[in-house]
## 1
Amino acid sequence: MLKISASQFILPKSANTKGDDACAYEIIDSEFLVGVLCDGVGSAKRGGAAARQSVKFFIEQFKTRPKNWSIEKTLVTFTKHINRLLFKESMTQYEQIELLTTLSVAVVYADKLYTLNLGDSHIYLQRDNTLTLLSTDHVMDEENMSHVLTQACGLSENVEVEVKVTDIKDGDKLILCSDGVYNLISDEDLNEEISKGLSAKLIVKSITKEHKDNERDDASLQIFTIKELSKICALKNLNLPIPKTLKKGDIIDGYKLIESMMTHNRIWKVRKKDTYLVMKFPLNADDEQSLDEFVREAWYAKQIHHRSFGNAWIPEKRTSRYYLMELIEGNNLEKFLHGKHLSIDNAIALAKFLHKAEAHLLHLGLVHGDIKPENIIVYREANSAGTVFKMVDFGSIVEIFSTDSRAGTPTYLAPERFTGSNINESTEIFSIGVTLYWALSGKYPYGEIEPFQNPSFKEAKPPSFYNKNIPDWFDSVIMRAININPQERYSHYSEFFYELKSPEKVKPYFNKSAQLIERDPLVFYKRAFFTLLAVNIVIIIALIFST
């Protein structure tokens, strides 16, 4: 995940005006930083409109860029497109250039900085308190003509675009500014101000305070500090081939492929000397999205160090794209039960196990995303009489609060996941609840849901309806976990775990639509008593007055 701190500020050249500058930035997919700054040309009637339109265009288009485009191709294509749009709109509406702006764009991805500029707005990189200008001013060379732009966005139908690529590292600072800033401060002084850690607003206010309205230009400044580059992107950018075909007996980096573990032949049981492991490759050798998902999966798997999961690692010296996992021998929970019910003690142990697994992921800012019996391995450890569980399937793990995740199996998904809600502790607890419900009853609380189905959720029967051995308190815990209303479900793992270890404090679960006698018999009978008492008193009084 890319981590930055950002500061940006625009000060129009006079009060009560909108100004002609525009700037914005966005971190996209937790991996890209896109910063855009435009200075609308003041001599053009609609320079400010062109600046704002260009900034908005770049931010929005980067969000939906084709995944297989390089950053360079993306920047060049988008620049040529917005340039052509501005030029044609000028010609159509005014028959002359009126939508004209400078354009400066900076993109941070992996360990590279990609920059592009048209006009005379500046892009700097500060490293170790040294400021370096990365952009080129596109202005006339003649004396007294340096204010005349030779290139700008919207100046002509076609434009020549050059993308500069610079190595970047943690701690670097990226600066974008209009001429309204650098004309009032030298690069040396700007470097000093930025080194002090001052915000864009403080710097702009400081350098413009001696200038009256309309005695200067609009002043725009963006400052980005790279706190931590995306390790996932760096991992993806490694030049590693992806085998298109794999077969039994192949040897890769000393690991011999022994047995394919899936029909797609991308997960293999392998052996090196006397050690057996699991080797996993990207699902599709030619698909960019498949590579993205695989790299993210491998990175997340590498971060997880907890006994609830098998170990996983990415060998430093690889000749192809794969990662390794500990081989866990055992059956998944579905096969383990095979028509039987899990014992109450084992079900409670499973619930606590799933809590611990998810709590560890939460510490890393992650969730499993696909809790179900098929992803829980059951086995017995040597010299141990108890049943041991392990979680598998690193491919479903995503960042908590993701809204665009495809992770999960429909039958185990909380209702709000079908309407685009984010994935969170509560939705994961729902999946845990459905898993426990199935393990104890052999039934699904809301039926089996098919992919692409738009399910309707009706109140479920308690699991004790099918398995009379389930104690009331555990029945209530499961029903609260699978409540279709997020407001009535456990919100956090800690709430769920507290009730698992404190059965005596679990309140009975009742459907709120149930009659009062079911939800709270004591309150029902108290109300009935006082109602009857009141009726009797009224009858007695009526009898007295009637005689």
Note: Residues 415 and 456 are 8 Å apart (CA to CA).
## 2
Amino acid sequence: MNKKSNKQKILLVEDDVNLGFLLVEYFESNGFDVKLYIDGEAGLKGFQLGYFDICIVDIMLPKLDGFSLVKEMKILNSEIPIIILSARSLKEDKIQGFEFGVDDYITKPFDEEELLCRIKAVLNRRNPHPSNSERTLINQKKLGAYEFDAEKQELVLGKITQRLTYKESKILKQLAQSKNNLVKREEIMIEVWGESDYFTSRSLDVFISKLRSYLKLDPRLCIKTIPTVGYILEESKL
């Protein structure tokens, strides 16, 4: 496996072959390259020989358990993010995983869509810091008649400057980066709050309502709700 492909690459170590194949199919349908290993020793060998953007590791693995595998991976390359995906839900297991340096710990059973959102959130956090010029392009965006600066948390229309909260700015940035395209609710919640549950869902509704009020001075802009799925920041032409 090399780095020539533009697709991000996942190393998946899961001894449940049926679950492993289901995850491979799901991740590949969402644009990833995936390599599946069914025991810890094979997973370690694959990690040594290939390049991966992120690793997903079960704990209860044959030949080499998940914690030992994570420890060896961190010695070889501490920069590659790792998510533990395990049926073991004890607090002690989670603490041990985070002490070894994992980026997230997800318990089975799990929702595939939430897992995908968590993977994207970890990858976003792990992206290298852009240069000043790249940061300007990333954080400053024209939205209709507005100028939106995510880093300064400002939405400017002429002489009117609306200061945004940190969460408002992060949500608007996600919507702006996918302007005229759907952004899923779970993806926003995982990125902004780090979790997806009833309370964050209600909070997201409140933040979307606030953002709509900030953008109302330009009738070309509309945050459209796709019920139970997500939002689209639409910008129509004059």
Note: Residues 223 and 233 are 4 Å apart (CA to CA).
## 3
Amino acid sequence: MDILIPHSRRIASPFGVVLHRSDHEAVRVDDRLWPWRTTVVDTVLDVGALTDEDGQLAVLASAFQRRLVTEAQVRAGLDRRHAHPWRELLSTVLAVTADGAESPLEVRYAREVEGAHRLPVGTRQHATVPGRRAHHDVAYPAYRLVVELDGRLGHDGWAARVADGVRDRGSAASGWLTTRARWGDVTLRRCALADEIGAILSSRGWGGAPQPCRRPSCMLRAA
């Protein structure tokens, strides 16, 4: 069990209890609930601080998907935590999630594939067929290209694959090309994926070219 107490208070930690001290405990506790507990925003930041980048992104994305927090609330909570281990990551990611990214994989694509290699900025959760509820992870409307990001969740099983095919064919009938990238593409092949997406965009009229990212091993740097 984890318990939050004022920073000035000094008590021995009971067996099985981890004490956390803060100068801001009054604003971090939701006193409308009983037993009192930390707010959703502070819980997202607390849990994320104990894990790695992907863990923090997963917790944040889950809270956004369930409409438990807003970008403004997370920003306000982060402003009170100058020593948060993922402060810089979250500051960058909040702009992406506010733009519509709904999963850790979408956030990483936006940061590490699209942004890091200076690809055109895609539209998140875009509907290619007017009147239909189906939305696509990333779309480049000027080039009629859709990038679907198949993560470890949400794209498993026969029924999901059938639904993906129906959606892809519906987009194709409207002149959109759909390409798919998986977790390994975004995390392990990010530079190669940027090169591949850039080539597809170029074939559909983009006049630019993907640029090398900051990684010394970026294949685009070698090229």
Note: The chain is about 45% helix and 15% strand.
